[in-house]
Amino acid sequence: MLKAKVLSIGDEILIGQIVNTNASFISNKLISIGIPVDRIVSIGDAEDKLLDELEDSIKSFDVTIMTGGLGPTHDDITKPCLIKFFADKLVIDEKVLAHVKGIFASRKVKMPDTNVEQAMVPSKAITIWNPNGTAPGIWYEIDNKIIISLPGVPFEAIAMMEEFVIPELKKKFSEKINYVLKSKTLLTTGIGESFLSEMIGDINTIIMGSKLAFLPSVYGVRLRIDVKGNNVNEADKKIGEIETKLREKIGKYIFGENDELIEKTVGNLLREKGLTISVAESCTGGMISEKFTDISGSSDYLMGGVCTYSNDSKINILGVKKDTIDSYGAVSQQTAIEMAVSVRKLFSTDIGLSTTGIAGPTGGTDDKPVGLIWIGYADNTSSFAMKFLFGNNRERNRVRSSIMALEILRKKIMKIDNNIE
Amino acid sequence: MLKAKVLSIGDEILIGQIVNTNASFISNKLISIGIPVDRIVSIGDAEDKLLDELEDSIKSFDVTIMTGGLGPTHDDITKPCLIKFFADKLVIDEKVLAHVKGIFASRKVKMPDTNVEQAMVPSKAITIWNPNGTAPGIWYEIDNKIIISLPGVPFEAIAMMEEFVIPELKKKFSEKINYVLKSKTLLTTGIGESFLSEMIGDINTIIMGSKLAFLPSVYGVRLRIDVKGNNVNEADKKIGEIETKLREKIGKYIFGENDELIEKTVGNLLREKGLTISVAESCTGGMISEKFTDISGSSDYLMGGVCTYSNDSKINILGVKKDTIDSYGAVSQQTAIEMAVSVRKLFSTDIGLSTTGIAGPTGGTDDKPVGLIWIGYADNTSSFAMKFLFGNNRERNRVRSSIMALEILRKKIMKIDNNIE
Q1: What is the pLDDT of residues B126-144, one digit of tens each?
Q2: Which ipTM did the prediction report?
Q3: A-chain residues near B215 (CB < 8 A)
Q4: Which of B77, B114, B307, B317 has the most A C-beta neighbours within 10 Å, making it the best mutation to test the interface with A?
Q5: Which of A134, A191, A336, A417 qualifies as a cystine partner to A374, CB 3.0-4.6 A?
Q6: How does A154-177 read in b/e, with b if 16+ C-beta sit within 10 Å?
């Protein structure tokens, strides 16, 4: 069984300055080709620590992928350490040098001399092309153990993983990958873990030796199916069987798969049905339209939105009646509905969606506490608003409101009852 | 010198399903009280791996903080492993049991029997109260080595760190913490690393033995000052001296400190000056108003915004002239300026801000390639638009446009030249 290690180098990780997104990206890519990651380690910019880790890698891991410490400055220790560990030397790579010079030229910037060092590569290693930056990657291979070093900038490391590292590892280990671990995640939102669990019933009759994990977050509960098979087909078949059984039980709550975003699901539904939409946001302050427009091609269905943060703007721009706000308040069923109806009219769209609520931490009262949110919906035949009471955290309240608005929209388009459970 | 380890437990980390935000949060908290983290490790839900790590912790680390694997299901191995490792046994904690029952009662849900196990705690350990969830934390202390186990849910772990773990560790090690590592980060945006470096000049005369790291990201370049001192005062003094020298050289590019967001800086400036603002967004699709409203109290200055994603909505809602769009296109200096001028009028605010551009990946032409963004600004005396050419990545283009719009606004309010460098 192959074993991989992901090693992140940099003081900024140990002091918690940055979140290690590289490690999760790399692990995910490796497992997808049947090379499971056994261990993720982060160390600082310290030579002795890195040498220890390299020793451990050669001893116990088939593949080690390192990120960080490849820059041109004094605190970048990865290249010197690799040279030392593999008793290697640096040689100039003219292609890399031309690339580095080109990057500075295109930015119309004089290249600092230190950047020439970026083109110095280890003589015994394969150089990995970095299309997006100045630091090339390094691929050492000794006795079938592979040690790969990539830059720490996520943008650069991701491209190099996808374009070179993953395809090459797949080729290299094609015969050794004798079993496959596969995962699939089904995404739900707006419904609690306990309810899902209850509806699913006896889990063992469904997973039959595989694994099912419930992963709750502010975006909803994800259900991850983990299976092991002798090959991809077998694993896929197992996943398919489990998925079918789960969908029989809780299908209407599943809005998507894996890393799909609900804004993507809903966008596809709107496009399929030829529907247009506009959004009036108060407590979410633009988050819903931001999510919609994050998807390329969203101009097919999203005509636009208004963030009416003040009462005046709700009245003057959207046309909510002053009376409504005076009588029921800005955070009310009536205002939410009027916002949805009005924004639909303003943008001449098929559907209007709205949010108004008290995101917190201030602004709550006994009657209308922090976390109280109304979500409004309007189309050409109906309009309604639904009430939610989330928690005390402003950011979480805003995210939950946005996601819930999209889920209400999804159910409405799919003609699934919008009862809260 | 104290040494800490952060240990994350869970298959979901090794397969890259989740990003390990707990580790960075915990590391950051520990370093802030003078307990530097030497190593961050992630392992799967496997007993042998965890026992090895516990062995290593007792041998080499003063403090180990673990997260994950404390739930009530079969794949949660942390508690049984700790019991085994410390030759301990579980006893019922009535206070925790009442709390767990209360959580289910408040949700009006019948408590599954497995949750009784959440109230079973190790007899030789201190139980750490978890106000936000059902799994209490565990604090073992043997021969001055401390091993702490917290739940994996970030929300729960963060509260327990802040309310119990950090204050207790501070007390416990008050005499041993004989030096302090402190960091301060100065935040810039809209200016490249090379330009900053050039303006700063000879770095050694500034940092005098301390460290200065340049950390570029899509949000801008952060400069992190790392110093070591015999006590907090000495460390603060060193940071102060370096900061003063840096601010002399590049002060006008520094918009904030540490984890401050530019939307917060700009919001404070607007409030101080008594200015109101509204935003008209095309390519950023609501991201700027979303950022503004992410800050509690932003209703003091943000009156609202429109996301005019379609040309029709730019004309009908915002009042951009059809002629302007026909003659110059939606992505043009003229349209950007008209959007800013119009949104300012629509919301009756002191300032209007706008974005229009081609975020990509589609929609680019030879004349107007993907990454071309115009940012418009209008107040009662002037209006202008600035052109940017970012990259090919939609998400990065949207974020960079939003941040750049906020930076243009910051400089305008602070009367700093808005030349692009």
Answers
A1: 999 999 888 999 999 998 9
A2: 0.79
A3: 12, 17-18
A4: B307
A5: A336
A6: bebbbbbbeebbbeebeebbeeeb
Nearest-angstrom CA–CA distance, A190 and B143 = 47
Question: Domain A180-257 belongs to what topology?
Answer: Alpha-Beta Plaits (3.30.70)
A131 vs B: CB within 8 A: no
CATH architecture of B265-413: Alpha-Beta Complex (3.90)
pLDDT value of position B419: 66
Is A25 close to B16, i.e. CB distance below 8 A? yes
Helix (H, G, I), strand (E, B) or coil at A173: coil
Residues of B in contact with A182 (CB under 8 A): none
At the fourth CATH level, the homologous superfamily of domain B4-172 is MoaB/Mog-like domain (3.40.980.10)
Give the model's pLDDT for residue B71: 77
CA atoms within a 13 Å half-sphere pointing along the CA-CB vector of B339: 34
The confidence band for A74, taking pLDDT boundaries of 50, 70 and 90, is low
B192 contacts in A (CB within 8 Å)? 107, 109
Tally of CB atoms within 10 A around A244? 11
Using CB atoms within 10 Å of the CB of residue B55, give its burial: 0 to 12 exposed, 13 to 18 middle, 19+ buried: exposed
Give the number of beta-carbon pairs within 8 Å between A and B.
Answer: 270
Averages of pLDDT over runs of 10 residues in chain B (421 residues) are: 94 89 94 90 94 97 96 81 96 92 77 83 96 92 95 94 95 82 91 87 91 89 91 92 96 94 97 97 97 95 94 93 96 97 97 96 92 97 95 92 97 85 41
Domain spanning A268-413: CATH superfamily: CinA-like (3.90.950.20)
Confidence of residue A283 (pLDDT cuts 50, 70, 90): very high
Residue B177 has a pLDDT of 75
pLDDT in tens, B173-232: 988 877 777 889 999 998 888 889 889 999 999 998 898 988 888 899 999 999 988 888
Q: How far apart are CA A267 and CA A269, in angstroms?
A: 5
List, as ranges, residues 5-24 from A with C-beta within 8 Å of B: 8, 11-21, 23-24
Domain ranges of chain A: 4-172, 180-257, 268-413
